[in-house]
TrEMBL record:
Residues 1-21 form the signal peptide. InterPro entries: OMP/PagP_B-barrel. It comes from Psychrobacter aquaticus CMS 56. SUPFAM superfamilies: OMPA-like. Keywords: Signal. This is Outer membrane protein G1b.
Length: 271
């Protein structure tokens, strides 16, 4: 009976530690001591699928415990795209699922062309983005194709300046003389404090450790609040105030970047 009990305990301990390290496992039951060599965790690179798989014959298979996942990130990535320049850390849940936490930001106005039109007025744009995010990446077919979803916490500064055309600002079918108005400038702010996003993309591994990725998608930033003021040396304060109010309303109707396009590329290092 003691032999059966010792064998059962030994098997359970060996199985539960096999995926952790190649350290000896010592089992003691009364006066009996047995030493086993635990099987180390091993991984294999599948070149056809472009993914790294856990091949350890442990009781937990390729799925990690919550504690292991939290303390052992699977990857770090650098990225550039419409949300900004940034990086993220990934935690592998299993062969097809990865959790991500990252940040992207900076001045990316040039990625949107540096300007936009709100009806008949052209506006120059200056941006300072800050977009921390949490998300999940799925490989539904177990290959390069990925689907992502998550939440962005946007804190984006968007400054605008109106460009006069032929000496006028034409706002809501009314011409305002640029000399009387002066300079029209202001800022835009999206109402969503949490912005959901979704993407599709590709994420092949080039080697066991290095890979690249690209993603396309969108984030819903919400409606736009605009603040416009007349600055400079306009000669008609009443006309300037009317033009600023009209421009403010027109910008809010435009809802610039209500749906923020997500286009990004990057490189990944896997541990």
């Amino acid at each position: 009976m003691r032999l059966i009990k010792l064998t059962a305990i030994s098997a359970a301990v060996l199985a539960s530690t096999a995926a952790l390290a190649a350290e000896p496992v010592i089992v003691v039951d009364g006066n009996d001591t047995v030493v086993y060599e635990a099987q180390p965790a091993s991984y294999a690179y599948n070149a056809d699928a472009g993914v790294v798989r856990n091949t350890t014959g442990a009781i937990f298979g390729g799925t990690k415990t919550l504690f292991q996942t939290a303390i052992n990130p699977a990857s770090v990535s650098a990225e550039v795209g419409t949300l900004g320049y940034g990086a993220n850390i990934g935690w592998s849940v299993n062969e097809k699922t990865e959790l991500q936490a990252g940040w992207a930001g900076g001045d990316v106005a040039d990625l949107f062309g540096g300007d936009f039109d709100a009806n008949d007025v052209n506006y120059d744009v200056d941006t300072d983005f800050s977009n921390p995010y949490l998300g999940v990446q799925l490989r539904p077919a177990g290959n390069w194709f990925t689907m992502g979803a998550g939440i962005i916490v946007p804190d984006n500064d968007i400054d605008v300046r109106a460009n006069a055309k032929d000496g006028n600002f034409r706002i809501d079918d009314v011409d305002y003389d640029a000399d009387e108005v002066g300079t029209l400038e202001g800022s835009l702010e999206h109402r969503n404090k949490l912005a959901p996003y979704a993407t599709v993309g590709f994420r092949p591994n080039i080697t066991n450790n290095f890979g690249v990725f690209g993603e396309l998608g969108a984030a819903y930033m919400g409606k736009t609040d605009a603040t416009v003021r007349a600055a400079g040396n306009g000669t008609n304060p009443i006309e300037a105030a009317a033009a600023a109010n009209a421009a403010e309303q027109e910008l809010e109707d435009k809802d610039y970047l209500e749906w923020m396009p997500i286009v990004k590329v990057g490189a990944t290092y896997r541990f």
